[in-house]
From TrEMBL:
UniProt keyword terms in alphabetical order: Membrane, Signal, Transmembrane, Transmembrane helix
Transmembrane annotation, as ranges: 239-258, 270-289
Name the record gives this protein: Copper oxidase
Nucleotide-binding among keywords: no
Source species taxonomy: Bacteria, Pseudomonadati, Pseudomonadota, Gammaproteobacteria, Methylococcales
Signal sequence annotation: 1-21
Amino acid sequence: MVKTVSIAALVCALSVSGVSAKEFQEHKNMMNHGDGHLMDMDGGMVMGQNTDTLPGGCDKIAGTKELTVHAGHKYSEKFPGTMWAFDQQEYQFEPCTKLTVHFINDDEIRHQWMMHGLPKYLYPKGMFHLEVSGPGSVSGTLILPPGDKTYLVHCDIAQHMEKGMKAQLKVGKGSEDLPSIPGLTASVFPDDYSGKPFSAEAFEAQEAAARVAAAALEASASQPKAQSGDTVAAADDSFLSGVSVVGLAIGVLVAPLLAKRFKGMSVGEVIATVFEWISQAIGFAVNIISKLLKKLSSKKAIPLPDK
Ligand SMILES: [Cu+2]
């Protein structure tokens, strides 16, 4: 009997300790797996750490900065319709800054601070990634690339970004803003909390207004471009030779800049960078063509099915 009671007491004590909140854990003694990948068996991880290799185009480290990021449910409370968020939605640093990020998870679940779009010859898959499971902190360092660009930062756990855990990091002046950043930029598809049933007419009107606005914006941004486009279409025969002459001229002008950009990089890194540029250029061209096709072909938006 005494034995049974004591076993019951033990089971109770164990289950209670299992349910109670995890203690805050500083993940400081992680195992280094090489290539900037550090992790421990308690849910702390750093990937893409780079403390000493200058990205191509950086002559020196422009400055050393530290950033403390909190992640948690409570930061989402001020943004309707979200569930998780970082404590800040936008960061800005000078190009070539050596940045140490202290990532603090205030929740009992797993969160990440994952930055995308970095040069792939230096950061595996173009990513810098911090992760903590449960309450705790982890720190990692990277060196930001040169140039003005806006980088996506998010938590990649399923639905965490879609439910608010999304931010942007601007290097220099940044490039275009990213959509759906809580409190900062509009969604691509705005949420509707009106409670009204779906109306195909209202949806079409909204889409049409958005298309008119987008077309007006595009027209105002690219008036000279449209004219040169007409000239190209008219003078189709001389198109190729014209392009090659322009290409040659650009090549001559750009070569010294490229030499500077590739200074100190190995042949492999140079090739990897060039291929990255080519793939970006192709992606860009495909994107523009598909947008054009869409604009030409889609008169009507596809209506959503009725419930
Ligand atoms: Cu998360």
